[in-house]
Amino acid sequence: MWIQRLFIAALLPVAAFSQYADVGTQAHQLRRQSNPDFALTCYHCEVSVLNFKDCNSTKACEQGNQCLLREMMSTVDGHHDYLMACGTAYDCDGGEMPFPVGKRDVNRRNIAVSCCSNNLCNTPPPPTTVHTDPAACMRDVVLIVQDSRNLTSTARRVALKAMLHGIVDAVHIGTDGALLELSFIEGNKMNHQWDLDHYANKKALQSAISRMNPDGHGGVVDINATLTYIRDVALTSRNGDRPNVPNDIIIMVESQIHVNASSFQGWNWTEQELRKLSGDVIVIEVGTNEGNDAHQIANLATDSNHVIKVADYLALQNISARLVSLLCS
Ligand SMILES: *[C@@H]1O[C@H](CO)[C@@H](O)[C@H](O)[C@H]1NC(C)=O
Ligand SMILES: *[C@@H]1O[C@H](CO)[C@@H](O)[C@H](O)[C@H]1NC(C)=O
Ligand SMILES: *[C@@H]1O[C@H](CO)[C@@H](O)[C@H](O)[C@H]1NC(C)=O
Ligand SMILES: *[C@@H]1O[C@H](CO)[C@@H](O)[C@H](O)[C@H]1NC(C)=O
Ligand SMILES: *[C@@H]1O[C@H](CO)[C@@H](O)[C@H](O)[C@H]1NC(C)=O
Ligand SMILES: *[C@@H]1O[C@H](CO)[C@@H](O)[C@H](O)[C@H]1NC(C)=O
């Protein structure tokens, strides 16, 4: 029965689903023969929304439809948005967009499509913290953040801290788990905040994160100094690096970063050093309009999956889970 219903649902076109309009008559005949299903009411907006709460129009769906939630990511600036609609089995299976897409929907990549069968169920689940098996994330994590003037804003600092709290919350922190070290890049100076083994439990590390503050001096970043620092200071046993524990490196910069051109000289060897130091080099880019310098820094990442682009600092708070899965995998 279920199979049959699914089959019929697959043939039922949504009105706007023009490419299937020609099977409409047939579908109507089939539907008349089928047992009436309960028609669902779903959130239904014909444009994608940044915040799912902005889609507050609902629709009584065609019989056999489910409520669909499609999460998409912009390939331009990495922001996520949602499409909420009545969905056919075809849509729920990851088929085409149920509406002609508007201009703002180009450059989107589907992240997830989910369907459900309760009234108004097509909203994202409440954010859950990912909890990993302690042993699954034994890592020395070195985080290097560009100390931008933009970070003098409290809201942006709060978002940065929220991202860090989210990571630390999700993993076991300790000498038998993950350790995290933080430094800011200020021009050609590395502003070291704490060693890897300085805060070897979750509570201490979370409170250090709450207290930390970039001073917002900014400056032109010296990339050679940064990478040399990672190799010669951050990941040394003096700084708490555990020799047999894999290293993760996170470099966070703005998309409009300026790198001292002469410091690019040290680039090619440092990049190879970096590969030796860590199999997980993650680059976080904040801002739209990637400049050439940010593009070169993004090339340091292990691969394109290890480049996370967010539209602004405020979006950082939403990427903890993604970071954890990269860090701990
Ligand atoms: C529906 O969403 C729009 C756009 O976000 C908003 O202006 C409006 O107040 C919302 N209506 C209700 C009833 O929530
Ligand atoms: C760039 O680096 C060179 C060599 O280290 C240094 O002399 C120069 O002052 C730096 N420029 C800036 C703008 O920081
Ligand atoms: C890179 O930085 C290191 C350490 O500061 C320095 O010794 C080296 O000369 C620099 N290389 C270049 C090409 O600037
Ligand atoms: C790095 O670049 C210099 C200058 O372009 C070149 O001579 C050298 O062979 C390169 N080193 C590596 C390891 O690619
Ligand atoms: C940083 O500040 C500048 C100047 O106010 C602004 O144009 C830019 O968008 C900001 N960048 C980010 C990533 O917030
Ligand atoms: C990040 O998450 C917050 C809270 O869930 C939300 O209000 C905000 O729109 C999200 N920002 C982005 C850029 O995704």
Automatic annotation (TrEMBL):
InterPro entries xref list = ECM_Assembly_Org, Snake_toxin-like_sf, VWF_A, vWFA_dom_sf
Give the signal peptide range.
1-18
Top-level lineage group: Eukaryota
**Record SUPFAM superfamilies:** Snake toxin-like (SSF57302), vWA-like (SSF53300)
Q: Where is the VWFA domain?
A: 140-323
For this UniProt record, give its keywords in alphabetical order, as a comma-separated list: Signal
Q: Which PANTHER family match?
A: COLLAGEN ALPHA, VWFA DOMAIN-CONTAINING PROTEIN
Protein's name in the database:
VWFA domain-containing protein
Q: Which organism is it from?
A: Dreissena polymorpha
